[in-house]
Amino acid sequence: MAIIVTFDVPDGGQDLYEAVISRVTDGQGFTRLADIPSAGLIAHIAGPLEDGGWRVTDVWESTEALENWAKTLGPVLADLGHADLRPAITPAHNVVVA
User: Fold this and answer.
1) pLDDT exceeds cutoff 90 at 19
2) Which whole number is the average pLDDT over 35-60?
3) Given this model, what pLDDT does residue 98 score?
4) Structure confidence at residue 54 (pLDDT)
5) Half-sphere CA count of 49, side-chain side, radius 13 A
6) In whole angstroms, how far apart are CA 12 and each of 20, 21, 67, 69, 98?
7) DSSP string, 31-90
8) Residue 63: which of 12, 15, 1 has the closest Cα?
């Protein structure tokens, strides 16, 4: 079952987001889902929060796919000072992609 994963980072912003992307893609950038070195990512959205901070919302094909991705993402977040960051995870009822 697909899941929706949302990270709200009140003290983060575009600079932190870009640093994470740079590290997880070995500096190649992120313009297509295949750029992320983990299977199972269905959708990715990122942008600023109204009151400051940053939100990243992903749709993953399963909890197992997310857990596999966490093996890559977790150490990067820890190295950037955000080891305690935990996402909200909810089951997806419907996922429609192009």
Assistant:
1) yes
2) 96
3) 82
4) 98
5) 16
6) 11, 14, 23, 20, 30
7) SSGGGSSSTTEEEEEEEE-TTSSEEEEEEES-HHHHHHHHHHHHHHHHHTT-TT---EEE
8) 1
